[in-house]
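S.,

Sequence below, as promised.
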Amino acid sequence: MPRETAPSDAAPQPPSSKAPPPSKAPPSKAPPSDGPPPSAAPPGDAAPPGDAAPPGDAAPPRGTAPPEPPPDAPPPSAPPQAPQPPQGEQPPAALLPGAGPATDAPSTDASDAASDEGAFDDGSDWPLHAPTGDAHGPTRPEAQDDDDPLHPPAAPLLSHDLLAAWKGDFERAKQLLRHGRFTEAAALFELIGPRAPTAEEAAIARELAALCYHWSSRGIRFDGAQPARSPHAPAGPRQRSSGEIASLYVNAVVYGLGTGTWLGVVADLDSAGGLFVPALALTGATLGVVAVVDQEVGFAYGVPQAISSGMYVGLSQGMLWSLAYNAQARAAEEWSATAVSSVMWGGATLGALAGGVIGHRISTTPGRAAWVGSTSLWGGAIGGLTVGGVVPDDARTDERALLGAALTSTAGTVAGLLTAESVSPSLARVRFLDLGGLVGGLLGLGVYATAAPSLETHGTLWAMNVGALTGLASSWVLTSGMQPDRGDEGTKQTAQAPANPLQALSKARPTLLPAYAGAQVGLAGSW
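The prediction came back faster than expected:
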């Protein structure tokens, strides 16, 4: 018999929205089975595979009508009806047939069943493939594994001001790293890592912090950012070496003490305090000037050694020429101690300034600058010993020997300036040459003093002269294999053919090449 429905004040819905009346056909019996009855989707809606209906709500087999409710069951309530517009007006688009729901109520179509397959296992309804549009990581970062190195946790979005501040901190940390302040750089990298705008930049900050901590613990430091090179390779342009600046500091102490002594002589101070206090004060001032120039301006490669060599060349020239003048002048015309000390101090000062200017303008090397100083020193020594051993041993021997030493020292300075570029020895080779000349002169003097029954002036001078020349020549031959120091020109040089054919033959290598019905034998090398 037909069922009665409860009265409703709502207007009737359009025909398309009405549910079809239930069928009166008797339900067909399902075949018996041992397992639970299979679930079936409502008519017209295909259930997704693998989904089972809840227990107690078994659906009838497909193609049969649902069972009729018992007579004593309460009548079902009619679904809420949407209000109808007044006569003559078009209903809203949300109420038209086929339109989606106007509210956020969950949908009941088949697409919801398909989207349920992407839900998380924890029961949440978060989709696994939800579109984010966020370039800074997934929409749900808590779903990621924090221990996964390939997918670090995403960082939150930053505002424009915070992003600019983070980039500024990152640049400051990189500057600290470039300047070798690894501990400070590591602390700053570690501080800004969690605030990085992206996961990749956060990982970079963490790696840089770990690297800085490692370098700091190992005591690693940057040495002018110079690439690794051989011990005799040039240091490159505009980069002074550590040995140069150390030598310049030592010579600055010598210059400061000499300046204080000169002031004491000029002022005619007799007390020890009057001599030492100015010397110590001027020594500190000289060291301060060198430190400020080195830190603020920077010395070019070879300039510190050029300043040191120029100071000693000027000092030796002033001393030799002033002593040579006093040796040949009459007693009334001799220079006083104040004049001699002033000439020596002035020569050292002018020599240091000239060495610095020349070294800066012509891009010298430490070896070239030291070469000029050595040619001046040994030129004066060999010249003075030779002249003293040749002239008669009389009252004017000292005068002539000093004059010869002054002249040959000046000639040696000029010769050193002219040959420095072509020879271009390394600083180590020049030091070996100086050592050979000194050891040879002392050895010659010792041999003569042991063999001769008495020390004569001419014999002593000649023994020292021959010994020094022998030591210089031996050192030159023994150090001929040392690589020259040509500064920035050394990196541009290419292999050239040896000038001596025998030398080229010694560097040739035999070759054996297969040929038709035999082989070819030859030599390969630079010719």
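The radius of gyration is 50 Å.

Coffee later?
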